[in-house]
Amino acid sequence: MQKYRIFAPGIEVWCNGSTTDFGSVCPGSNPGTSTIIMDRRTFIGIGAASALAAAGTTLEGKVPTAIKDLAKDNSLKIKFLGTGAASGRKNGKGRRHSSILVDNSFLIDLTDNSLDMIPEGLHPGTIFYTHSHPDHFQPSAALKAGVQKVYLSHSWYDVAAKAYKEASKELGVKMPEIVPTYFGQEVQVGEVTVTPLIANHPTSNVMEESQIYLLSKGGVRLLYATDTAGIPGRSARRIGIDAHREGYGITALIMEATMADPDDFRLYCHSSTATVANTVRVLLKTDRLHMPAGQKVYITHMAGSLHTAAELSSLPDPIVAAEDGLEVIFREP
Questions:
Q1: What distance in Å separates the CA atoms of residue 195 and residue 239, rounded to the nearest whole number?
Q2: Best label site of 115, 131, 245, 311, fewest CB within 10 Å?
Q3: Tell me: the pLDDT tens digits for 33-73?
Q4: Domain end point (choices 19, 47, 70)
Q5: Which of 20, 55, 70 is the last residue in one of the domains?
Q6: Which of 322, 328, 329 is nearest to 98 (CA)?
Q7: How far apart are CA 94 and CA 208, in angstroms?
Q8: Is the peptide bond before 73 cis (omega within 30 degrees of 0)?
């Protein structure tokens, strides 16, 4: 016999210590203590599978398989390959150019400055670009990493295709597939859904639309926002964080904070730590940021000359400064 006790934020499965409805001893059970702790999604999934079994029906013919599928890990793993701005890392000092590795599967932005942070032996086959600035876009670095598929805004597709063609020829490697994306168009990479959004960050190409990204996996909804001055209204509405409209919002946030000074002249193109703090306050106040207990908001794209160590170590909770090489697992709330 199994007993269930529900606690926030998870669910504890209790066993009487002897037998179960399936006729076997509960592994690791001990009367008076919970045997398994799970989230609500897993609990509901197992309940559904048990109901099917009681009715003589199974999913894919086997209840254990159904339970395994419903109980799969929907956490999203992010590795910060770089957390710096345009100046990058020089002579072994400073932060590398901003770049992330998602679920050991694909990249967002990459230059030679951050190439050494990709785990040895790993060759991510896909990359998404935020925009064409050279501290984010360097085709040769992606080709060295083993990238075979490239996603970027349709607004600078021709520019990117030309640059990749030249880099491929120079390195003697196959030209990757380059796919233009559009605002709100969802792209599936493995178990992660990537949604391109509009950023507030101009480049020298007046027709180019810089992008930020929503990364979704199971109940995790992570907004990766760099480079951008705040979150543009169209993007906010698309992902449900604009309180003018109904919406669930997000469960995690990584946002650029190029500078500490909120009055810096770069405010038209970049965010400051004050911008991030204000964004987080509003998201929490309007119930549009649903983070599991203890989870943090991470800032990236920090210019070394525009921050002090003291400022970065005293950011208002739940904001923390990411570091090169930091790995974070974002879980469902």
A1: 9
A2: 245
A3: 444 444 555 444 545 444 444 444 443 334 444 444 445 68
A4: 70
A5: 70
A6: 322
A7: 29
A8: no
